[in-house]
## 1
Amino acid sequence: MQGHEMTVVETDGHYVKPFVVKNLNIYSGETYSVLIKADQDPNRNYWLASNVVSRKPGT
């Protein structure tokens, strides 16, 4: 999420020692749980984006 950090707390059904990231690459079959603290200016809009890498977008 633009302008926000994410705290990863779980990967593939297993709790992990929390760590902070700005971006997260997720591969086929993987799952993550993240916490996002909404602490930025509430009068602005923030983008959440995803991108397909290493595959044709139609697959």
## 2
Amino acid sequence: MSQLVRRERRRPNAEINVVPYIDVMLVLLVIFMITAPLITAGIDVELPSAHAEPISPDETTPFVVGVKADESFHMDIGSRQFRDMTLEELMSVIAKEQQNYPNSPIMIKGDRNVPYGTIVELMDQLRQQFGVENVGLMTNPL
């Protein structure tokens, strides 16, 4: 007597195995967590030192205008950054941003080696073009 063996047909498995994707995601997360604090944003500017009080956190986000030793300008507004601009480009960026943040103070972060005339010219342009009266100079604490 012969036995009849009934064979079942296998159906293909249509499920996606997501475990490798989760592993890759966790590895990337660890890499970003380790490297994020090492990345420093900003331009190195050697500020002069002076006795001054820090800005209170209650105020609106200031525009931080930086002047490097080579007299190029950059600007930070919160997390947005504008780099290596001329004075004319800086003024056009400030004009656009003043519409969104009309009462924001402007802080000037000038390098110690920048000629005094460049800072005065910047302050004069801010006053003449935009009527900005709330301008501060940033320093390092003593």
## 3
Amino acid sequence: MAWTYLLVASVFEVVFALATNATHGFTELGPSLLTAAAAAGGIFFLSLALRSLDVGVGYTVWTGIGSVGTVTFGSVLFHETITAAKVAAFVLIIGGVLGLKMADKLATAKA
């Protein structure tokens, strides 16, 4: 269940980042309220995930998924450019996230 909570927290992280961009310096009420709600939701679900995941694994996966999701959706919603260097960084981030998940699974299996 911890990984499910972490995925939900990551979705909130992406919404938080994208909504923050839409606040225009917190001058737009709707996006500002969405930003606050998404931040609270992300932290809440992250805290649930960290009940059974190591903080180093949980936080790193949360920020990794949030980073990749934010850049991906930022390109769609805000027409931001995705370069070859960004794609290479995505691959490294995703590889790191998968590596951490595998390492956590191996540690749990040994315990």
